[in-house]
Design brief:
Layout (H helix, E strand, L loop, with lengths): L3 E4 L2 E4 L1 E3 L4 E7 L6 E4 L2 H22 L16
Length: 78
């Protein structure tokens, strides 16, 4: 089981704020900050998908290439 949301090749985190009583996350693997939230897993997933769709639509309107998520591994040298 993965702790990440996935949609249109983008991945996002799932976190819980005890203080606010809500779920939240951010899209990972890109430089742009795209965040989302919800009061349930279903709401969180819907807001995540909406954020991705809005990002892609905005890039299209501005005629810029959307960032592609990083694929690969990080190597630690020790």
């Amino acid at each position: 089981m993965s702790d990440l949301l996935s949609y249109k090749n983008y991945n996002g985190t799932v976190e819980y704020s005890k203080e606010d009583g809500c779920l939240f996350g951010k899209v990972i693997g890109i430089k742009s900050l795209l965040s989302y939230e919800g009061d349930s897993v279903k709401e969180l997933e819907q807001d995540f998908q909406n954020v991705i769709d809005e990002y892609l639509d905005d890039c299209k309107k501005r005629k810029v290439e959307p960032e592609q998520p990083y694929k690969g591994t990080f190597n630690e040298s020790g």
